[in-house]
Amino acid sequence: MSVPAHIASVRAITSGTAKDAESPSDVIHLPSTRPLGGHDSVVPALAEALIRQAPQLIEQLVELAAGRDVEHVQQLPPADIRRSLREHVLGFLRFLADKPVPADDPLTVPMAWGHHRAQEGVALESMLRVHRLATQLLWEKLFDEARARSPEVLQRLLDESGPVWDVLDSYSLALVKGYRSAELTARREDAARRDALFDALIEGRGVEPAVAAEARVTLGLPTRGRFVVVAVDADAGGSFRTLSAALPARSVQAVWRLRSDREIGVLELGRTALPRLVEWLSAGAGQRVGVSGEVDSLADIATAYHFAETALQTLRYGATGVAAFDDRLLEAFVVTSPNVAQRLTQRAFGHLLDCAPEERDVLLTTMDAWFRSGCSAAKAAQRLHCHRNTVLNRLRRVESLTGHSLDDDRHQLACQMALVAVNTLPLTSPPQSDTENM
């Protein structure tokens, strides 16, 4: 792959306009006025003399790198190594000689090669070792060329050494800048690939062998296992980081993704019991979390995601906590059919819903306690800390308002489901039907 292919993108980084550039302060510049090009400077003439020796310099650099066992020099094609060294050396010397440079910016070449080497998987330290060898060799050759001319020229080179080393240092920084930009781009591309694969799973494409195979490699998820999906209400201040901190290390494998107002997690439980997971997640105070039931393959992640979202919706507005789908199946029926649930509530409770809030709440609480006590007025009275007759009087009031006897088994079942609806959905008028919303 030729470095010129990188020039356009790297030029944007050099100018500080690329998205990968961290901030304007990170932009690298060589001396803008080229102080080495003054009338009294000896450096341009020395650099021009070295340009004519470029082929020999490149071979010496290759031998130096090979002798130091620089890893990527031994692994990459020799022609590629020579081309990169030639462009580095000539770019540096042309700048010192006050001659035109590629792309009007001498830093374009080292940044492009840093970018390219990162894409090849070359270690940064290996790349910098070659640069240090080149720096050492070029300075020695400048020194030798000056000494061969006269002691005066040598002294003037030493006097001007500061700017020369500044240029060499800028080249080193440019190499690193190009390398880091490639790393950042790779991380972003990897994150985008992971997000796309995660979305494919929760959208039902885990049934595709190719998607399942990539999930094993990219997300580290097995094709079969004990999976649950966790949905966290991000709008309510929820964060998977808090939940992840509650999970003991290596107990549960988790992959997370932010989608709109949700933090979604696909968890492989390993040997962890689901109730234990819910207990750990409940340690994150102040969050709204829905947990699906278990599924045993990536092909079922979409179903688990639906269960987790449904479980989250069973938490009343403003309430916090962890809702496990398998523990809230009745509530799940309610939230998945809110129109039917509210219609059932109206039919079961009738005029009871028209009472003042204080009386309505007392009657509903009494009825709930009665059902939870096995329809025993005495046991319900103990729960409510009141007299048995008080419970009976309230139940008669309920029958009067609803127009149905609580001895009717079917009416009892309707009332029990209506109580679930009341405790799950807000007590408002029934929502419009789908046809009315169209």
What low-confidence regions span 5 or more consecutive residues with pLDDT below 50? 1-25, 31-35, 428-438
Residue-averaged pLDDT: 84
Strand content: 5-15%
**How would you spell out the order of helices and strands?**
HHHHHHHHHHEHEEHEEHEHHHHHHH
Strands, count: 6
The gross shape turns out to be rod-shaped
Radius of gyration: 37 Å
Number of helices: 20
Number of domains: 3
Share in helix: 55-70%
User: What class, by secondary structure content?
Assistant: alpha+beta
Sheet with most strands: 6 strands, mixed
Cα-to-Cα separation, first versus last residue: 57 Å
Give an overview of the whole structure.
- 61% of the residues lie in helices and 8% in strands.
- A hairpin with a 2-residue loop joins strand 2 and strand 3.
- Strands 1, 2, 3, 4, 5 and 6 form a 6-stranded mixed beta sheet that branches.
- Helix 15 packs across helix 19.
